Amino acid sequence: MIEAGIIGGTGYTGLELIRLLVRHPQVNLSVVTSRRYKGKKVSDVNPHLFPFIELDYEDVDTKEIADRSDIVFVAVPHGSAMEYVPALRERGARVIDLSADYRLKRADYERVYKREHKDKKERDAVYGLTELHPEVADATLVANPGCYPTGAILAVAPLVKGGMVKQVVFDSKSGISGAGAEPSETSHFPNLAENIIPYQVTAHRHVAEMRRELPVDV
Q1: Are 126 and 136 in contact (CB under 8 A)?
Q2: Structural contact between residues 53 and 22, judged by C-beta atoms closer than 8 angstroms
Q3: Residues with pLDDT less than 50, the chain
Q4: What pLDDT score does 50 carry?
Q5: Going by C-beta distance under 8 Å and a sequence separation of 6 or more, which residues neighbour residue 126?
Q6: Which of 14, 58, 117, 126 is most buried by its number of CB atoms within 10 A?
Q7: 91: helix, coil or strand?
Q8: Own/partner pairs, 49-56, CB within 8 angstroms, 24+ separation
Q9: Whole-angstrom Cα distance, residue 33 to residue 83?
Q10: Does the model's pTM come out above 0.70?
Q11: Quick one: pLDDT at residue 39?
């Protein structure tokens, strides 16, 4: 049985992760963190998870999380994961980061996300597309791919490998939940219902992931 922990168990990604892990026959969910809901039952805050989980939300440090977990999922916003990952790895935990903090080389990350990366150690994260990177099975740090790159890369990777394309244009659509749980004017349902809003059409940050994995003009 694999003991798994989740840092950030209240956002859309964290909640979906909880739903998947509590039903996995080889996983025991040992700890789920939330500062806002510390001490409250996960299923009380999220009734759709009852009766599958009896854990309380906790606010514990990374050392304790690592000591209680074989693998830790980091489900926090971009720029926050780098605050947790180094300490988790120092304690021997394997880490799957769901943010963008470890998907790119440091220089590329800082250029695309316009922020300094605080983890200065050598970048050894494995990009988590298992179809293209079987080494994920033995990785100690997995950088989970972005939503658009997952669909885009897997769709054309066979064509690229076969030398059938040299240039690709991706036209992708995302649902409202792709913007996360934090409300904003651009993710407010009345503004988006039956509507499409263009988003960073020529400079989307996910393009860097596509270019990293696909040796063609994207």
Answers
A1: yes
A2: yes
A3: none
A4: 87
A5: 133, 135, 136, 139, 141, 142, 143
A6: 14
A7: coil
A8: 49/15, 49/18, 49/19, 49/22, 52/19, 52/22, 52/23, 53/18, 53/22, 53/29, 55/29, 55/31
A9: 15
A10: yes
A11: 96
Q: Annotated catalytic sites, by residue?
A: 147
Distant-in-sequence, close-in-space partners of 14: CB < 8 Å, separation ≥ 6: 6, 8, 32, 73, 75
DSSP string, 147-194: HHHHHHHHHHHHHHHTT--SB--------GGGG-SS--GGG-HHHHTT
Kindly state which CATH superfamily the domain 2-144 is placed in. NAD(P)-binding Rossmann-like Domain (3.40.50.720)
pLDDT value for 63 = 94
Tokens representing residue 181 in the block: 């749980």
CA dist., res. 8 & res. 99, Å (int) = 11
Instruction: Write down the pLDDT at residue 175.
Output: 75
Positive or negative CA dihedral for 67, 70, 76, 81? positive
Domain ranges, ordered by start, for the chain: 2-144, 148-213
Pairwise CA distance, residues 216 & 59, whole Å? 45
**Alpha carbons 216 and 8: distance in angstroms, whole number:** 36
pLDDT given at position 198: 82
DSSP state of 125: P
* Pairing status of strand 57-58 against strand 2-7: unpaired
Which tokens in the block code for residue 192?
Answer: 């988006």
* pLDDT of the residue at 188: 73
pLDDT of residue 85: 97
